[in-house]
C-alpha cells in the first residue's frame, strides 16, 4: 500500500495538529479536515484577510495546503452517526484530533468507540499534557512550563519565548514519527494503534542536556543570550553594515583565526584552550566586536568561509527566501478562484509525491467546500443536512 492509498480524517484546529496533517498531505495521503459549523477552525479568522473573503485569513493558510474540508456538528447524535459512517465506509486509516480528552467521549471520537468501528484504525490524539489531563495549553504556556523560556534571553533580562511556536511544531513532528511507526507496524501485524502525544512531554524531551546537568550534577543552566554555555567565542558581532554570527567549535579553529592579521591580537596564552576562552567570554566577545566593526558583513562572511569557521550574516526572512537552496524548492498552491499563489518551504526531505507533483499542492480549502464530494459519495442529502445545520 502506498501513502496515496491512505485517508486521514482530522478534527483539527490551531497549529500543532494541522502541522502534522500537512506532512501527511505532502506524503500524498488524502487529508480531510473536519470542522464545526458555522465558523470552523478559529485560525480561519486570524491574520490579514489576504483573499478578500471571510474565513480564509493568512494565518490559516500555510498549514492547510493539500487538504479537503468538511463540516459536521458532533454535538448532535446525527452528527456522531455520520462521523462513524465516515470512519467505516470511506474508510479512514488515520483519525486525529487535538480536542481535550474530556470532549472526546462526549463527541463520540474517543479511541475505544472508533476502534470498535474500525479495528485497523490508527488513532492520534495531541493534547497539552497527555490523555489524563484536561488542562488548556497554548504554545507559549508550554514554552514557559517546559523550561524553554528559562533558557532563552539575555542573562540580565526577562525570559523570552522563541520566535516560532516550537512546542506546537515539535509535537506535530513527534506525532508524524509515531504515525509512520504505527503504519509500519500495521503492515506487519494488521493491527491499528492508539497514539497519544503530550505537547509538554514533547518539549521536555528536547531538554536532555539541561535536565542531565541539573539533575545528575547539580549544575545551573542559565540564559546566555547569543553565547554558548560550552564554547567560545560564539555570538553575534557587529560589522560595519550589520551583524555576523560565527562559532568557534574547537581549538584548531581558534588557532586558525588568531593566525590571521585581523585577530592576531587575541593570540594569548590564556585563550589557547576553550576552557580559558569560556572563563573570559564576556571580555573576549567585547574585543572581537571591536575587530568585526572594521569590515562589512559580506567581507567577514568570505573571511570566515576561507578559514573553515562556521559563520553567517543574520538573515531577514526575505534573505532566506532568496537563498538559492530555498528558492528552488518552494512548495506552491494556487487558488483557482482568485489566482492567488502561496509559497511554503519544502519539508526537510521532499517526498516522492511532492516531487511528482512538481512541488504543487491543492490550495487550502474553504470551510466545508468538500461536503458534497464526501457526503454525497456516501449517499447523504447534503442540501437537507445543511438546511438543518448538521453540516
Give a brief rundown of this model.
The protein has 391 residues and is an alpha/beta fold. The chain is 39% helix and 14% strand.
Strand content: 5-15%
The structural domain count equals 2
Q: What is the top-level CATH class of the largest domain? A: Alpha Beta
Distance between the termini: 32 Å
Instruction: Tell me how many strands there are.
Output: 11
Report helical residue fraction. 25-40%
**Unreliable stretches:** none
Structural class of the secondary structure composition? Answer: alpha/beta
* H/I helix tally: 17
> H/E order of the elements?
EHEEHEHHEHHEHHEEHHHHEHHEEHHH
Taking all residues together, what is the mean pLDDT?
A: 96
Largest beta-sheet details:
6 strands, parallel
Strand order of the largest sheet: 3-2-1-4-5-6
User: How does the overall form come out from the CA principal axes?
Assistant: elongated
CATH architectural arrangement of the largest domain? 3-Layer(aba) Sandwich
Rg calc: 25 Å
CATH topological fold name of the largest domain: Rossmann fold
CATH superfamily of the largest domain: Crotonobetainyl-coa:carnitine coa-transferase, domain 1
Written overview of the protein:
The chain has 391 residues and is of the alpha/beta class. The protein folds into two domains: 3-205 and 326-387, Crotonobetainyl-coa:carnitine coa-transferase, domain 1 (Rossmann fold), CATH 3.40.50.10540; 234-313, formyl-coa transferase, domain 3 (2-Layer Sandwich). It is 39% helix and 14% strand. The protein has helices at residues 16-26, 77-89, 101-107, 111-117, 139-145, 166-189, 199-205, 208-217, 251-258, 274-279, 281-292, 297-307, 317-322, 324-327, 352-356, 371-377, 382-387, and strands at residues 7-11, 30-35, 67-71, 94-97, 122-127, 193-198, 234-238, 243-247, 311-313, 331-334, 341-344. The strands form three sheets. The chain has a six-stranded parallel beta sheet with strand order 3-2-1-4-5-6, with helices on both faces. A hairpin with a 4-residue loop joins β7 and β8 (243-247). The longest helix has 24 residues, at 166-189. The model has no long low-confidence stretch (mean pLDDT 96).
Amino acid at each position: 500500500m502506498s501513502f496515496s492509498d491512505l485517508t486521514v480524517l482530522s478534527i483539527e484546529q490551531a497549529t500543532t495538529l494541522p502541522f502534522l496533517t500537512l506532512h501527511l498531505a505532502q506524503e500524498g495521503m488524502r487529508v480531510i479536515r473536519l470542522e464545526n459549523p458555522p465558523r470552523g477552525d478559529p485560525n480561519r479568522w486570524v491574520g490579514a484577510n489576504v483573499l478578500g473573503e471571510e474565513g480564509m485569513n493568512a494565518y490559516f493558510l500555510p498549514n492547510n495546503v493539500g487538504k479537503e474540508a468538511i463540516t459536521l456538528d458532533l454535538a448532535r447524535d446525527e452528527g456522531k452517526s455520520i462521523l462513524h459512517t465516515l470512519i467505516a465506509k470511506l474508510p479512514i486509516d488515520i483519525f486525529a484530533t487535538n480536542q481535550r480528552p474530556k470532549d472526546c467521549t462526549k463527541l463520540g471520537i474517543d479511541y475505544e468507540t472508533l476502534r470498535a468501528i474500525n479495528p485497523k484504525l490508527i488513532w492520534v490524539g495531541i493534547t497539552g499534557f497527555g490523555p489524563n489531563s484536561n488542562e488548556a495549553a497554548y504554545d507559549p504556556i508550554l514554552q514557559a512550563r517546559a523550561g524553554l523560556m528559562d533558557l532563552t534571553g539575555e542573562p540580565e533580562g526577562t525570559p523570552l519565548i522563541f520566535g516560532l511556536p516550537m512546542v506546537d511544531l515539535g509535537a506535530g513532528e513527534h506525532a508524524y514519527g509515531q504515525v509512520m511507526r504505527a503504519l509500519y507496524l500495521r503492515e506487519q501485524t494488521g493491527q491499528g494503534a492508539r497514539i497519544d502525544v503530550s505537547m509538554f512531554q514533547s518539549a521536555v524531551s528536547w531538554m536532555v542536556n539541561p535536565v542531565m546537568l541539573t539533575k545528575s550534577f547539580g549544575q545551573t543552566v542559565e540564559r546566555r543570550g547569543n553565547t554558548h554555555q560550552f564554547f567560545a567565542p560564539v555570538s553575534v558581532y557587529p560589522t560595519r553594515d550589520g551583524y555576523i554570527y560565527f562559532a568557534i567549535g574547537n581549538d584548531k579553529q581558534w588557532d586558525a583565526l588568531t593566525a590571521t592579521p585581523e585577530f592576531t591580537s587575541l593570540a594569548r596564552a590564556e585563550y589557547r584552550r576553550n576552557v580559558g576562552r569560556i572563563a573570559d567570554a564576556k571580555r573576549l566577545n567585547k574585543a572581537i566586536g571591536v575587530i568585526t566593526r572594521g569590515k562589512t558583513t559580506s567581507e567577514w562572511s568570505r573571511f570566515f568561509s576561507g578559514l573553515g569557521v562556521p559563520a553567517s550574516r543574520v538573515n531577514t526572512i526575505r534573505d532566506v527566501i532568496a537563498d538559492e537552496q530555498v528558492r528552488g524548492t518552494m512548495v506552491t498552491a494556487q487558488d483557482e478562484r482568485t489566482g492567488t499563489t502561496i509559497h511554503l518551504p519544502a519539508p526537510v526531505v521532499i517526498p516522492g509525491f511532492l516531487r511528482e507533483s512538481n512541488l504543487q499542492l491543492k490550495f487550502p480549502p474553504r470551510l466545508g467546500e468538500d461536503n458534497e464530494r464526501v457526503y454525497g459519495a456516501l449517499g447523504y442529502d447534503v442540501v437537507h443536512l445543511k438546511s438543518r445545520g448538521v453540516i
